[in-house]
Specification:
The chain is mainly beta and 719 residues long. It contains five helices and 53 strands.
């Protein structure tokens, strides 16, 4: 297939795929990278040597590194600092002067020399340099002077340059306290007293301080128990240096967890849970504030109040001691109940989506609810049913398999996922969960399959964190009738309605190709712009950073402009002339924004044998009323729920008048945008070539819809 003919076929893939011809990417030198420093925190007395082990790397090999450096100061400045560097090419060590203007020294590692300024000394005899593979490791032996002592922490920054003068930039890798350490202290607790039912979340806000700034704090803790013991308690701690949360086991011997604040994890022992997703850490000045989100279990219920102690340690392992700051009572649990379902009765055709609004209540607060469920079947049986549940603790949705033995899915409400068995589907993207007071409300978006026709009962069920349950309660009935089959016009209208929400969009693109299963060409990095109804622009770049632009391709209607930035040349292609067609024939392929012409210019019939009615994928065969040079037949598959084209096949007659496939474009994945529009995010195009099977895969990232693109953005003379 010739290049220009290929460009014509690419125009058919509007909003989907452009097959670009790009220049090969240029090679660039690798940028040096910074490793770790050890120790990365702690304190050092003045006039006492300390060794910092720092690593520096270069993908081209350690020999490509020129200088490696360590800067120690309270901020990123070389003035009044301890700033040392090693030059590999000369094998010399240096220390910067107080004013940041002159490198002092120039001695070999291991030599009997000391380089010093007013703030510190570099002990060359004890400073060593080793190298292997891509990495240089320097053990810097430094002695800090009294002038460098302060209550404020000093930051540890690494930096590297290579022989091409490319540098890593400065990166902070740790902190250090120079001088006398001050032990941390605990502050306040809020609420300091009160009571709550078991299995109901409560948030305790605790503060911890360090005169050497909050960065000197290492761990901060909260212990809740009837006596000052860590055994059979709720004892949680946060490690600032690793940014991880932990909870002590029942025996008081092992810390459980190790998860980041805000992550979707629960850490638990027999007596309580630490909800990491609702636990937050903030800091300012000398103070670290932790909002501990804790759920006490039934085993922690008792008439005796529990004491609440706070505790803190710093990077020098000084501690505040355990200090009691409050008291708390844990009350008994109450089983959850189910509320209503709406609609409570009615009917709908199979394969047409319907929403059920259900409510579930817990006297201990909605946060005590664990799972909320909806079972739809002709009798109270989970086999061969549509049985759904939502787990609040994991924020995940599930659907039971046909056999009633395994939960399918595990996706968040609002995510672009479909969970299905033989009898129905749960559309996670349109399923919502809201909560207030004692009640959770779930809006389930369900599509029943043709195998589920008949009258069914609707049952609700709920469990709480103590595994108490409501029992299965019948709350309604529903009739599923025979599957609905959309007309040609209805299927096409879904596409029009979807793309009516798209005035413009832009995205990063990655294009890869294989020929006969083997990689073909280079990976191409682009940025794509579209403005309805027929303006497109694709910018090509040398690599994934998308910093150096090489080519631009702009399509305005039937005119394609190819701009080579390196040679500053421009070529304009008239797609109508190249294809030997008129404007009407060109536009009659546009079923996105010119549907009346598409309908009037083609004979369109529904191909029921190729349609998937359970998933509402409608297959259409399209034959032009008047022959043209682009296609003799189109086969179009439409996702009726999303309004996107899932497959677009182009057929032409060969020399002997036989219809054969020319090109096929498939949508492998799609994404729903905030305004409800669906757009393809992964496409696959396969032209029919005599030389073999060429498959081009395109992925869209960082989509922005309706960004306000102007016509000038697509003017080839203004690029």
């Amino acid at each position: 297939m010739c290049l220009k003919a290929q460009k014509i076929l690419n125009r058919v893939g509007l909003l989907a795929l452009l097959f670009l011809c790009l220049a090969a990417a240029s090679a660039f030198a690798a940028t040096p990278t910074l490793g770790t420093i050890s120790p990365s925190y702690g304190s050092t007395a003045v006039n006492t040597p300390v060794t910092f082990t720092a690593s520096y790397s270069d993908a081209s090999g350690y020999a490509h590194l020129n200088t490696v450096r360590l800067l120690i100061n309270k901020s990123l400045t070389s003035i009044n600092a301890v700033y040392v560097h090693y030059n590999q090419n000369s094998n010399k060590l240096y220390l910067l002067s107080d004013d940041g203007k002159t490198w002092l020294g120039g001695y070999v590692p291991g030599s009997a020399n000391t380089i010093e300024n007013s703030y510190g000394k570099l002990n060359c005899a004890s400073t060593t340099v080793t190298s292997s593979g891509s990495t240089i490791t320097v053990k810097w032996n430094i002695t800090f002077k009294p002038a460098f002592a302060a209550t404020a922490l000093k930051n540890l920054y690494l930096y590297a340059t290579d022989d091409a003068s490319v540098n890593s930039g400065f990166a902070q890798k740790g902190t250090r306290l120079i001088g006398t350490n001050t032990a941390p202290a605990v502050g306040t607790l809020s609420p300091a007293s009160g009571s709550i039912a078991a299995n109901t979340a409560v948030t305790f806000t605790a503060t911890y301080t360090d005169a050497n700034t909050y960065q000197d704090l290492q761990t901060v803790r909260i212990l809740i128990n009837k006596a000052l013991t860590s055994v059979n308690s709720v004892y949680a701690y946060y490690n600032q240096n690793t940014n991880k949360l932990y909870l002590l086991n029942d025996a008081g011997s092992t810390w459980l967890g190790g998860f980041t604040p805000g992550s979707g994890h629960i850490i638990e022992n027999t007596y309580g849970k630490l909800d990491c997703s609702g636990t937050t850490v903030t800091s300012s000045g000398n103070t670290l504030t932790v909002k501990w989100k804790i759920i006490f279990k039934d085993a922690f219920i008792g008439a005796q109040t529990k004491g609440i102690w706070l505790y803190a340690t710093d990077d020098s392992n000084a501690n505040s001691g355990l200090v009691q700051k409050g008291a708390w009572l844990v009350d008994p649990n109450t089983a959850p109940t189910v509320g209503t379902i709406a609609p409570a009765s009615g009917s709908a055709k199979a394969n047409i989506a319907v929403s059920f609004r259900t409510t579930y209540t817990d006297a201990n607060g909605y946060k005590d609810l664990n799972t909320t469920r909806l079972l739809i079947n002709r009798i109270l049986d989970s086999h061969n049913a549509v049985y759904l549940y939502y787990n609040q603790n994991s924020n995940k949705l599930y659907l039971l398999n046909d056999a009633g033995t395994s939960w399918l899915g595990g996706f968040a409400p609002g995510s672009s996922n479909i969970i299905e068995n033989t009898y129905g589907k749960l559309d996670c993207s349109a399923t919502t969960v809201t909560a207030s007071g004692n009640t959770i409300t779930v809006n389930w978006k369900i599509i029943f399959n043709g195998a589920f026709v008949g009258t069914k009962n609707c049952y609700l069920y709920a469990t709480d964190d103590s595994v108490a349950n409501s029992g299965m309660i019948k709350k309604g009935t529903w009739e599923i009738t025979s599957a609905y089959i959309p007309t040609v016009e209805e299927a096409l209208q879904k596409v029009v309605d979807n793309y009516a929400l798209v005035q413009d969009f832009k995205a990063d693109m990655i294009l890869t190709s294989t020929l006969n299963g083997q990689p073909f060409g280079t990976t191409e990095y682009c940025r794509y712009y579209f403005k309805a109804p027929n303006k497109e622009k694709t910018e090509s770049f040398t690599d994934a950073s998308r910093l150096t632009k090489t080519d631009i391709m702009i399509t305005n209607g039937s005119n394609m402009h190819l701009i080579n930035l390196a040679s500053n040349t421009k070529e304009t292609v008239d797609l109508l002339t190249d294809a030997g067609i008129n404007a009407t024939q060109f536009n009659q392929m546009d079923l996105y924004y010119n549907q009346p012409l598409f309908l009037n210019s083609n004979i369109i019939v529904r191909d029921n044998s190729s349609s998937d009615l359970n998933n509402m994928i409608i297959s259409l065969d399209v034959i032009p009323n008047t022959p043209n040079n682009i296609y003799d037949k189109l086969s179009v598959c439409i996702d009726y729920y999303k309004g996107i084209i899932t497959k677009h096949s182009i057929y032409k007659k060969d020399t002997w008048g036989q219809i054969s496939l020319v090109q096929e474009i498939k949508t492998l994945d799609s994404q729903q945008m905030p305004n409800g529009a669906w757009l393809p995010i992964k496409m696959e195009k396969t032209p029919n070539l005599a030389s073999g099977t060429l498959i081009s895969t395109l992925i869209y990232n960082n989509l922005q819809i309706n960004a306000g693109l102007a016509d000038l953005d697509f003017d080839p003379d203004r690029q």
